[in-house]
Design brief:
Elements lengths: L1 E4 L14 H11 L5 H9 L8 H8 L16 E10 L4 E10 L6 E7 L7 H12 L3 E5 L12 H10 L2 H16 L4 E10 L1 H12 L4 E7 L16 E6 L3 H4 L2 H11 L3 E6 L16 H18 L4
Parallel strand pairs: 1-9, 4-5, 4-6, 6-7, 7-8, 8-9
Antiparallel strand pairs: 2-3, 3-5
Helix pairs in contact: 1-2, 6-7
Length: 307
């Protein structure tokens, strides 16, 4: 099945006085298109008596302590960090492995891929949500060669940009293979990722099609054009209506998916920004995030079920 959906009628998220330009500039800053000085200078042009720089930053920058949905002490899961071999990457990788404490037989496995700043608390929480839903979840940290996520996104972003991109990709390939062999799993691997992680979902589906059984890229750019024809796994593609930067790549990607006969569905979520699933920032759209996550879990239940 190959389908694309236009925005669906979802209840609007709560409004706030932050202009759309601020979200666009934050996206450019978060992806290294502009530096912090330029970002702050642009935000300064939006300040008024009723909209201060502090208010703008308070909305745009993450507040991870406010966003936890599943505690690491939740009795339904067990969470720990494990290392894995990555001979074609940085030699060794490390990730957050979360398993259900009361699985019903062998269960599906889900690789959870972070944004372009390492394994921050939001993505670790997503891994716990996946395990809480009954899957074995594994969230690698691309920053392991640099000592791991440093505790803040600015430093994490700088560290990730300093690493060899090809080796990072190889680390995630190694992580997917490591996960596929996990005890208690049924060998069926799904991948979900956000932003840079969305790209990694697309890349893994194309680079190791015999490893990946299902992929859910949230606002991620496509894999290299020359390998898209290799994709075998069904894809559930989640895009934000206001995310012009990522959405610009979709028509060409859709053309290649159709040519390859890939089973895909694309949902374009209305009136929301890149990062709308991330509940630690003002870009979060609760209604669209909830719908997208419900669809994600249903997709994995369908495609990762034991035979």
């Amino acid at each position: 099945m190959q389908t694309s959906t236009l925005p669906v009628p979802v209840p609007a998220a709560s409004s706030h006085p932050i202009p759309q330009e601020a979200f666009n500039w934050y996206d450019e800053y978060a992806h290294g298109i502009i530096d912090r000085r330029t970002f702050m200078a642009r935000l300064g042009t939006l300040t008024t008596a009723g909209l201060t720089l502090s208010m703008l930053l308070g909305t745009l920058m993450p507040e991870y302590a406010q966003a936890e949905q599943v505690s690491f002490t939740d009795p339904d899961i067990k969470a720990r960090y494990v290392n894995f071999p990555s001979p074609q990457g940085h030699g060794e990788g490390r990730g957050y492995l979360v398993t259900p404490t009361k699985p019903t037989g062998k269960v599906g496995l889900v690789l959870v891929v972070h944004e372009n700043r390492g394994l921050n608390p939001y993505v670790a929480d997503v891994a716990r949500r996946v395990a809480k839903a009954g899957f074995i979840a594994f969230a690698p940290d691309a920053l392991h060669p640099k000592g791991g996520y440093p505790g803040n996104d600015d430093d994490g972003r700088a560290l990730q940009s300093s690493l060899d991109r090809v080796k990072i990709e190889q680390d995630f390939i190694a992580a997917a293979k490591f996960l596929k062999a996990q005890e208690g799993g049924n060998g069926k691997v799904g991948v979900v990722g956000f932003c840079f992680g969305g790209y990694i979902v697309n890349m893994l589906a194309a680079a190791v099609p015999d490893v990946v059984n299902a992929g859910v890229p949230f606002y991620g750019t496509p894999a290299a054009k020359e390998i898209r024809k290799n994709i075998k796994a069904p894809l559930l593609i989640q895009l934000a209506e206001l995310d012009e930067r990522v959405n610009a790549a979709w028509p060409d990607y859709e053309k290649d998916l159709k040519a390859a006969g890939v089973d895909y569905t694309m949902h374009l979520y209305p009136k929301c920004n890149h990062g709308f699933h991330n509940d630690s920032t003002g870009r979060y759209d609760a209604d669209n995030a909830r719908l997208a996550w419900d669809r994600t879990l249903a997709f994995f239940r369908k495609h990762l079920a034991s035979a």
